[in-house]
Amino acid sequence: MSQLDKNKIKKLMTYRYVVWGVLALAYIIVFFHRLAVGVVKDELINAFDITGTTFGNLGSTYFYAYMLMQIPSGMLADSLGARKTVTVGTLVAGIGSMVFGYAPTVFWAFCGRLLVGLGVSVVFISILKVQSEWFKESEFGTMSGITSFVGNLGGVFAKAPLVIMVGYLTWRISFAVIGALSIVIAILCYLFIRNTPEEMGLPSITEIEGKEVKKSSGKKPDLLKGLRKVISNPKTWPGFVVFAGFFGAFVTLSGSWGEAYLVEVYNIPKVKAASYTMSAVLGLAVGSIVIGRLSDAIKKRKLPMMVFGVIYVICWTALVFLNGGKPPIEILMPLLFILGFTCSVFVLGWAYAKEVNPPEIPGISTSVVNIGGFFGAALLPPLLGKVLDRFSDSIPPIELYHKAFMYSFISVVIGFIFIFFIKETNCKNIYKG
């Protein structure tokens, strides 16, 4: 290998973290918007005079947009590439955040939330696409976990720090500021992201790993044909259901109704309540990186999903049933942290999706599985909102939230059952065609 080749490899190994880092900044914004609405629930209800059901639908608008955009996001990532896709998406999200912040009516709040969901929906799939081009196959689970960890920092900012920010700036100005920051990040995306090492005249990861490099015909993959392959592959769907069940339940707690539950059941201040749900988000962040790394280290996907999935079910069992739905406050912080930590096992579903489908369309395969999480996250919060609206005047808060969170518990159990249908890949692509 020549000195020039060594220099190119060194540059690739360095610059890939620049590409990933800028994308990670965009992903922090994704998570902020994912969980921020729950923190300003009271402000939104007062500003627009809406019910709990309408609030749940307002929060879910993000997830519906995100969910519907996952397959188009995969196609965009596999055709236009991450650079253009994320730049435009983050720009749209920034505009949407400003529209949401200055919405004169609830209609415009829904419009802003829709734009945010559409904009941020393209970020994660593009990150997975970039990881498949800039990182080794053996690093994919680890990098997916690190990505989820960094993204969850946005969820942390959407808890107690956002409560403090809203206290100083009002909720409207806070969301406008986040919108402006999103536009700055969009500019950084265009300046620094490159879709593949080859765009910079660098060798591909495949070449560095010593694998056979297939000569390209110059044609783009047939995306519709690829989509049909992914959808018709029965191995795709267990990961979809696991993500839907686990993440849908997590969002009802961390992004929609968790703070209200803690304030009304435990009679604690709003900032303190936000710090409790923040522990769940921190757990998700830490778990993402630990579980992703562990999976790559032991060369297993199904085993860690099964082990941590059991603990996740136990955590929800304690939250919903222990002491009638009011666990002792002394154990609440660690319980929520462990709940978030073990929920993060869904990150393995993205690597699994890539490993059971054609290797040339990682964007599409991961996007189909990714729909599952946002289907659950869109469906459950309004469902809980209907329960809360219907029974809030007739039963005590502890019984009220026990009844509502029962739907989250059922969602988790369904997700866990589908882990049994996951096929072990040993961290390699096993697609047979």
TrEMBL record:
Record SUPFAM superfamilies: MFS general substrate transporter
Major facilitator superfamily (MFS) profile domain segment(s): 19-427
Annotated Gene Ontology cellular component terms: plasma membrane
Membrane topology annotation: Multi-pass membrane protein
GO BP field: phosphate ion transmembrane transport
GO MF annotations, alphabetized: glucose 6-phosphate:phosphate antiporter activity
TM regions (residue ranges): 12-32, 44-69, 81-100, 106-128, 149-169, 175-193, 236-253, 273-291, 303-325, 331-352, 364-384, 404-422
Primary location: membrane
Keyword Oxidoreductase: no
Record localization: Cell membrane
Keywords for the protein's UniProt record, in alphabetical order: Membrane, Transmembrane, Transmembrane helix, Transport
PANTHER family: GLUCOSE-6-PHOSPHATE EXCHANGER SLC37A4
Official protein name in the record: Sugar phosphate permease
Organism listed in the record: Maledivibacter halophilus
